[in-house]
Amino acid sequence: MTEQEKNKYYASEMQGAPLIELIAFRCTNQMAVWLKSRGLTEGRDYSAVIRRLLTKAMEEEGFDRNAI
Predict the structure, then answer these.
(1) Cβ–Cβ < 8 Å for 66, 12
(2) Which end of the chain is flanked by fewer CB atoms within 10 Å, N or C?
(3) Which long-range contacts (CB under 8 A, 24 or more apart) does 27-33 make?
């Protein structure tokens, strides 16, 4: 995902449905360190990075975030 695509996603996230659900999951230490580092690099909370990456993967599986 390019920087422009990332910025477009983050901007659109603020206009979408409210964040009301908390879903926790376990991950390896390597994944946690990478996610937190990526958040620092992008100037975002790592939970925003998780949502961006998860949304991208879900859309590849047929998820339409504009359908609801």
Answers:
(1) no
(2) C
(3) none
> Computed over its alpha carbons, how large is the radius of gyration of the chain?
12
Residue 5 lies in a domain: no
Within a domain: 8? no
pLDDT greater than 70 at residue 68: no
Residues 6+ apart with CB under 8 A from 4: none
Please return the burial class of 49, using the count of CB atoms within 10 Å of its CB with bins 0-12, 13-18 and 19+. Answer: buried
CA 56 to chain centre: 8
Res. 17: pLDDT tops 90: no
Helices (H) and strands (E) in the chain, counts: 3, 0
